[in-house]
Amino acid sequence: MACPLYKLLLFTALLILQLIATCKATLAANYDEQRDNAIRQVSSVGWEVTYDPPKLNMDMSTTRNVTLRIERIAKADLEDIRSVQLRSEREHVAWVENGTIVIEPLVAAIAYNGSFTVVANFLGQTSFFVELVRMNGTTETIKSSTLPITVIRPERVIDHVFTGSVILLISILYINFGAALDVGALKQIARRPIGPMIGFVCQFVFMPLLSYGLGHLLFPDNYELQLGLFFTGVSPAGGASNIWTVALGGNLTLSIAMTTISTIAAFGMMPLWIFTLGRTIFQRANLVVPYSRIAYTAVGLVVPISAGLLIQRYCPRFSRLLVRILKPMSVILILFIVIFAIVTNLYLFELFSWQIIIAGLGLPLLGYCFGFLASTLMRLPLADSLAISVETGIQNTGIAIFLLRFALEQPAADLTTVMPVSNAIMTPLPLLLLLVGLRIHERTKRRAENSLIPKTETDPVVATPE
């Protein structure tokens, strides 16, 4: 119980941070939504608006000056205009200091030139536009008057440390995995592959489709979050699945076999899903599918697993040592990536909203349910059903974060990372509740059985007279 209790405490602490950040993110999102709903009508005035520079790439917490020029201003246009403002579509990303545009009637026939200060607040993308407020209070926007702005994080030393650490730990884990790969066990499983086949379908058919559908349902207009959830859904099973299978009384042998098959199959299945169904998300997000980066990453993971197989073949004693540290190494990897990603990138919590929490919890929860239902319908033993359920629901979020950070440019890499982090935090919750429920049930059942056992009283010994 020590390990689940530790994870429960960790989850509780992270959940508190989530709730605090969710309030802030929800308020910002609601404000932006109100702004978007208010800005609907395009003005009929023939003004030409240009910006210098025509687009901005800024670091967080920095400022830049922008020159705004408006031409073809007719005096008649100003008669029904109360005010002219320079606005931001997403003010929590970037906003403008004193965006009021004062157009004098004397210079209206010539042009308006003004300089404004843009403040980059948080990573993401937004656009500035010129807004007209009529005398009756209605608002209009000038057609084709947008200034695209991209806000990214400045490069930090700790980011390079984190990236290098992830590469090192992933490589070590896959070397260990190659050393622990039991080819003989795989041959035995191939003779009766019902359990692994069900797990494969759940892992690489149901979970990708589920993550794709959840992304569309919860984030219809946020393609970065759709992409982050989809990358999480196409990832292989996580190393923690073996530990949870043991804790819940599942079939450990089947769990290890499924983890092995899932990890090997991921080299082909992840690129397959990303280059097919995932391409539609890239297209809607106006992002280029990073074919070469994803291919290089997949090939890069083959190298350490091949090294592990060579160690198993030629250095059996060292291979046995690697096998013993495989499980704790898997747990350390997951905890390190998630905790380090949170500590070094606390901005992630400002992105959290109720939709992100629901997605982070819904993906593993539905995976658990579908895996258990599918294996139960196939009349597998309860221990096998538990193993398949856990293997289906637990994703290797470390691989998802690894791919997203190396495959995408900024700020998309940062914006998409929030989904696997949310998934990693929320995944243990259903299993913890199930584990606590099972322990309570076992104790209650044991007490009930003990109460039914009749108490035997020893008869007093009567001394016989001599």
TrEMBL record:
Q: Which residues form the signal peptide?
A: 1-25
Q: Which GO terms describe its molecular function?
A: symporter activity
Q: Which InterPro entries match?
A: BilAc:Na_symport/Acr3, Bilac:Na_transpt, Na+/solute_symporter_sf
Keywords noted in UniProt: Membrane, Signal, Symport, Transmembrane, Transmembrane helix, Transport
Localization (cell): Membrane
Q: TM spans, by residue?
A: 161-185, 197-219, 225-245, 252-274, 294-311, 331-348, 354-374, 420-438
A Pfam family found in this protein is: SBF
Q: Name one GO cellular component term.
A: membrane
Q: How would you describe this protein's topology in the membrane? A: Multi-pass membrane protein
Q: Which family does it belong to?
A: Belongs to the bile acid:sodium symporter (BASS) (TC 2.A.28) family.
Please name the PANTHER family in this protein's record.
P3 PROTEIN-RELATED (PTHR10361:SF28), SODIUM-BILE ACID COTRANSPORTER (PTHR10361)
Q: What is this protein called?
A: Sodium-bile acid cotransporter
Native organism is Anopheles coluzzii
Lineage, opening ranks: Eukaryota, Metazoa, Ecdysozoa, Arthropoda, Hexapoda
